[in-house]
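ESCALATION

Customer reports they have been waiting on this structure for their group meeting. Please prioritize. Original submission:
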Amino acid sequence: MAAPPQLRTLLLAINALLRKRRYHAALSMLKGFRNGAVLREKLWAILQATYTHSRNLASFVFTYKGLCALQSHLQGETYQVHSFVAAFLGGVLVFGNNNNINSQINMYLMSRLLFALCRLGVGKGYIPEPRWDPFPLFTGLLWGLVLWLFEYHRPTLQPSLQSSMTYLYEDSNVWHDLSDFLIYSKRRPSE
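Update from on-call: job pushed to the front of the queue and completed.
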């Protein structure tokens, strides 16, 4: 069944607009927004990653709690160092393999750890209490650095981050018509 003439005319007009260079920057922003809003990965990969993530966390908790209990039993009481030793060994055993899941978990944990250490430093008086909320400055610095690295030192970034940023910031610069501007990320091979 063919599309009505009005719809064909509208599609031709939209596709002509999408091809005009003078609107490329604005349209690139729109496509970048669209690329940021869609789920790219396949469901199976997400489920596999979720399973691996939860299995690793369960294994770590089991190892950590077991090692804490063992140290307390052997020494007759609990010391602060028990927590560190148990977590260190559990971290090496469970999260020590350098793979995508462990890398993501460790990077997430590192960001939380840095925040906590800063708060501890302020609480103990090692770092002066900020007079204003440093979060906007932190955010600007973080995004400024990551986009600078992406644009000028890309190989230094983790491959999955490079891939996501390529999709968001470069693939959004390319389209041929409405189908790969709005519906598909890239032109389908059959076209």
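Sent to customer with the following note: Helices lie at 5-18, 24-37, 43-75, 80-95, 100-124, 135-152, 159-169, 178-183.
Escalation resolved.
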